[in-house]
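Dear all,

This email documents one entry for the complex benchmark we are building for the journal club exercise. For each entry we list the sequence lines for every component of the assembly. Then comes the predicted three-dimensional structure of the complex as a C-alpha cell string, followed by one or two observations. Please use this as the template for your own entries, and keep the labels exactly as they appear.
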Amino acid sequence: MSAFEDDNQDGVFPMKIAGFLLLPAGWMIVASAIVLLPPGAARMAFICAGAAVEVLGMVLIFRAHLADSPGKAR
Amino acid sequence: VALCTACIFLIPLAIAGLALINTGLGRSRSAAHSMLAALCVVSVAAVVYAAWGFAVQGVAGGPAHLLHAGGKAWSWIGSGPILLRGVDLEASPDFLIALLQMFSVALAATIPLGSGAERWRLGPCCVSTAILAGFIYPLFAHWVWGGGWLSQLGANAGLGRGFLDAAGGSTVQAVGGVTALAIAWILGSRHGKYASEGMPAALPGHNIVLVLSGCLLAWVGWMGLNCAGTMLMYGASPAALAAIAANTTLPAAAAVLTSVIMTRARFGKPDASLSGNAWMGGLVASSAGCALVSAMAAIVIGAVAGAIVTVGIEWLDRLEVDDPGGSIAVHALGGLWGVLAVGVVGRTPAGVSGQWLAQLVGMATIIGVVLPLAYLLNWILNLIYPNRVALQGEREGMDLHELGAGAYPEAAEF
C-alpha cells in the first residue's frame, strides 16, 4: 500500500496534496519576483511572501502527517 | 593542488562519522544493516555521480543550458559529457572538483539513512541514492556551484554577491536533510514508536560510544570538507585554511555547549545523544559560511545551531516524524540556518547589499523545489519498489531479516 493510499481518509490526502502544491507555488512567486520586478521594496516583499507560502505548505504537510501517522506503523 | 587533494582525502572521515552516528543511535538488531547500507549508498552515489551526475552539475563557466527571462540568461542545468569524459585526470582543477563532489554526494546520500533507520530496505535505499546522486544533488549543486541561476543572483538581479555557500551547507547538508524528511514521511514511523494517542515512546540508541566517536571523526572530515570546498569553489588561498578550520571547530564547540546547558536545565543531566547531534549541527551550520564570517560570528552561528537541533529533534518527535538518527534537525535545520546566517552575520564588501535576500531565495529553492522533487521521486519509487520492510522483518531486526545474521552474534540483545 502506498503512502498516499494510506492517507485517503478524513481529508488527509487533499491536505497533503495542497501542502505539496504550495511549496513549488511559493517558489514560483519568489522566482517571478526576481525576474519581473526591479530591485526595491516590492521585490523584497514578494520574495518574503513566496517564502511565507512555502511555510504554509509545510504546516499543511505536517498537519496531514500528524493526522495520519499512528496508522502508518503497520 | 597537493594541499587541496589532502583536504579532499579527509572527507571520507565525515562519512564514516555519520555512519557510526546513525548506527549507534539505532537499535542493536539493525546495526550491521546500518553500516552495510552506508557502504552501499556511498558506492552507488560515487558510481552514479561519476557516470552521470557530474555532467548534470558541470563547473562554473562550463557547458550549460540557458533559460532567457527578464532580459537575462540564466543557467539552469549543466550539459557536459557523461562518464567524466573531457576531464583531465592529472589533478586538473576540474577533476579535483569532480573528486570533491563525488565525496560530497556520498556524504549527502548517507544523511537519509539516519531518518530511515530500522525500516528502510537495502534495495530501495540504493535506488533512492541513485536518484539523489544522479539528478537531485547535481541539479541543485549546478545552481549554486556550477555557475547556475542561484550563483547569478548577484550579477543578474543585484542580490548581494549571489547565493553563497562556501562548503555545502545547502548543496550537501540541506539537500540531504530534506531528502531525509521526505524518506521519513514516506516510510512512516517505526512499529511501536507512537501509540494510538500519538505519544512518542523512547527507543534509545544501542551504543552512545559509537555516536560520540562518530562526532569526533566527523570533525576531522568536516575540516577537510570546508577547506577543500572553499579553495575549489571560492578560490580561498592556503593562508585562509587556519581560519576556516577555526570557523569549523568554533560552531561545533558552541553548539555542543549550548545543548549540554539546555539539556542539563531541562532534564537535570546533560543528554549525550542530543549533545552529539548538536555537535554535528554546529559542524553542518559552519559549512556555508566558514570562509565568510568572523570567529565571533562563528560562535554565534554554532550556539544558535545547537539550540535549533536540541529543540528541533524534540519538535519533530512531537510531530510524529520518526527520525532515529536526528538527520532532519541536524542537516536540514542546521544547514538552512547556516545558509541564512551567511546573509545575516557574514562579511559583506562595501557597496554590496541584499545578501540576506539571496540567501533567502536559496532556502526557498530547497524547500520549494528540492523537497517536493525528492518526495515525488521517492514516492514513485515506493509504488514500484516498496521502501519499507514488512512488520515481521522490523520485529526481528533488519540484520536477521535482510542479512541473515546479527551484528553482535555472541551478545544478548542490548
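Observations: Residues 42 and 83 of chain B are 18 Å apart (CA to CA). The beta strands of chain B are 64-69, 72-78.
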